[in-house]
Specification:
Structural class: alpha+beta
CATH topology of the largest domain: 60s Ribosomal Protein L30, Chain: A
Distance between the termini: 101 Å
Number of strands: 7
Strand order of the largest sheet: 3-4-7-5-6
Shape: elongated
Order of helices and strands: HHEEHHHEEHHEHEHE
CATH superfamily of the largest domain: OmpA-like domain
CATH class of the largest domain: Alpha Beta
Amino acid sequence: MAKRKEQPPEEGSPAWMATFSDLMNLLLCFFVLLFASSTMDEGKIQKIAASFDNVTFSVIDQGSISLVEGGMLSGGVSQVPDAQAVLTQAGQNIDPDSGNEVTASKNDAEKLSDEELKAELDKRGEEQSEEMYEEVVQMAESYSIDTMISIDYNEQYVELDLNGSILFESGSAQIKEDSKIFLQKIARILTKFKYCIIEIEGHTDNVPIYSAQYSSNRELSSERARNVYEYLMSQEDFIDANMKVAGYGESRPVASNSTEEGRAKNRRVSIKIYNKQNSN
């Protein structure tokens, strides 16, 4: 019987080695991506570490903990029961949805005096009010009522002053028919800010009222504010819980009552739109 001729070995690497090399490349890429995504901002880590000076908590040997972009991750089971609570106690206020720092640290806040904190809050509120003010002015101009109202703002709210003579007859709280279109445009402006607190205030001059229907200027101003509120509510879909109504009579003048011009300015309905910071 003839002896079978031995086949020469195949050239090149074995087939299994190509598969193994592909697997190693994939694993390498995977770990490079993991490392890249876990790169930490050294500055933030130093701030967090400094904030932990007065905070104590323990971690069991099993598992490891890292702080990444303001969030807490664990390799295994984390022994910190509430990451948000720990960061808050440490002076970091982290948004649980985005993982971003949303306010200054507690330690930084403690270094500020009450006056500095108030100044910072006022600054933020004024920035919000200024943005709202610009929107209100733009809408008032588009509705051609910018000359019929006085608009101003401060760190708490944007204020619209409506001249009482436009809305009411002297000594009356009944809204004039020809002023309702004007109030409809006011309602369209206000509805853009319906998630903010909106306060409607009635004001009068200091001339005593002689009326069988209203016993005082305060009662008249309260009824005027209430009627404006009810009309606005009938025009747009406001959130009633965010609406406030008040009547102040002659107690809050914006001009001197010694002249007719000043008294005319004091007879008004003021609408205050509080900014987000002051609507909470």
